Each structure stands twice: as C-alpha cells, then as structure tokens.
Amino acid sequence: MVSLTSVKFLGLSFLILGLFGCMSDAQFKEKLAKTLKENPKVLTEAIEKNPVEIITAFQNAVKDAQQNMAKTRDDDEKKQLEESFTNPLVPVLRDDETIRGPKDAPLTLVEYSDFECPFCARGYTTVMELMAKYGNKIRFIYKHLPLSFHEQAMLASQYYEAVRLQGADKAFKFHDEIYKNQRKLKNGEAFLKEAAKMAGADLKKVAKDISSKEVLARIEADQQEAAKFGMQGTPGFVLNGVPVRGAYPTSHFNNIVEELKKRGKLNL
C-alpha cells in the first residue's frame, strides 16, 4: 500500500491514491514519475482545482520533514558525542602555545575561531562564562579558522599572531578588544592597529611580523587541524577531547563536563 508519508510529501494524496490505488512505494514512485513526465498538466490542474488542500498538504509535509531532519541530526550528534568520549580528539599544544589559565588545569578548551564571525562573538561570551565558572580548573587556547567570505578575518588572525609574539597578555587584550567591539572591524586595518596599540604592542614590530612565515604557518596549521577535526564553520571547540561544532550555550559545555566526571574521565 502507498505510504501516507510519501504521498504527503508530494502534496497530492487525494489525487494520487485515486489514480494509482494499491502498490508498493517503489511502484508508486515509478508510476508517479512516469505520469507527471507524460502528462504534467495533471499536477497543474490539481493545484488549480485544490489550492487550499495542496498548500495544507505541502505545509504538513514540510513540517514532518523538518521534524524528521531534526531527529536525524540529534541522533547523529548523540552518536558522534558518544564516539568522542570513547576516542577523544587530541589538539596539538605547541611548546610556545599561548594558554589562558593555569597550564596544568584539568579542563582544556580549544577554540577554532574567526574574529569577524558574529557567532564567534557569541562564543567569546561563552568562553568568558566558562573561565569565570571553572576558575583555575580550566585553560583556554585560541586557534584560527578565518573564513574566506569574511573580509577582515585573515588579517585579524595575522594581527593577533603578530601581537602574540610580543607577549601572552598583549594577545589576550587584543583578542578581547576585537570581540567586544567586533562591529568596528568594518573600519578595516585601522581598527586592528587601534586594538594592537590598546593591547600595548609595538606597532612597527607588528607591521613587520603580520606577513612573516612564522605567523602565516601558524595560522595554516590551525586551519589544517580544524579541518582534520571536521570544523567546517565557526566557532568550533574541543573540550577535553569532546568536539562542539557551533555557538552552543554555556550549559552545553557544562553538560559535557558533568558527563566527563560521570565517566571517570575528569576530576574537579
């Protein structure tokens, strides 16, 4: 018998059932495709004669599709989350890594971010909330994933790395200034210079370092690691090996912490 779901998705249940009667889904799809190809007026006439029914059926079909997609996405995320607890991701922490918080903190939060991304500004707020909540129990590492369609993103990453070469505290100040005043990025390099100066950096040295091989190689390494971890958009995070792809609220990270504790993978 033709499944009601298949019929609803075409928005023509009242018409198709009358035309085709009882048959398997495969037979139904094959006959429907053939009929519409040979006589497309069947569809247009049905819409013209029954617009309300067609629109209602279509809206219901869209709603069902959205619910099914959401369930599939949730199921996939749960599966991936379970996998990450078993086989955690391992970001590279370089010898000269700029770490915010105690270097031996039990919680390690790595972010792959884009200075111009509005969702990353939301991610910045989440990071600050996590730092405040867990105090000396968490350390934070900022890595780069500048997206090509954000005009200032790559240059902002270069400025950050050039400032970082002059000290971690300066890098933190620059990082915070950008995210607190992200809209000013529309002013281009003028704002980046202003932020670097505010952070206490030597602007002449910054100008010399922003296009250096060291700076560009570091950004590229971050991008490659993000791609390896399936971080296609920003922000992306890895919390003690557990990936978080997107600007999730602080509560989502808190839930991961509790799950890590429950599984005996974290002592706080």
Report on this model:
This protein is of the alpha+beta class and 268 residues long. It has helices spanning 4-10, 13-20, 25-38, 41-49, 51-86, 118-134, 153-164, 168-180, 189-198, 203-209, 213-228, 250-262, and strands spanning 99-100, 107-113, 138-144, 236-239, 242-245. It has a 5-stranded mixed beta sheet with strand order 1-3-2-4-5. It is elongated and about 75 Å long. It starts with a helix and ends in a 6-residue tail after the last helix.
Within the largest sheet, what's the order of strands? 1-3-2-4-5
Gross geometry: elongated
Instruction: Give start-end ranges of low-pLDDT stretches.
Output: 1-14
> How does the major sheet shape up?
5 strands, mixed
Give me the Rg, rounded: 26 Å
CATH architecture of the largest domain: 3-Layer(aba) Sandwich
- Percentage of residues in DSSP E strands: 5-15%
Return the string of H and E elements.
HHHHHEEHEHHHHHEEH
Number of helices: 12
Give the helix level as a range of percent: 55-70%
Number of domains: 2
CATH fold description of the largest domain = Glutaredoxin
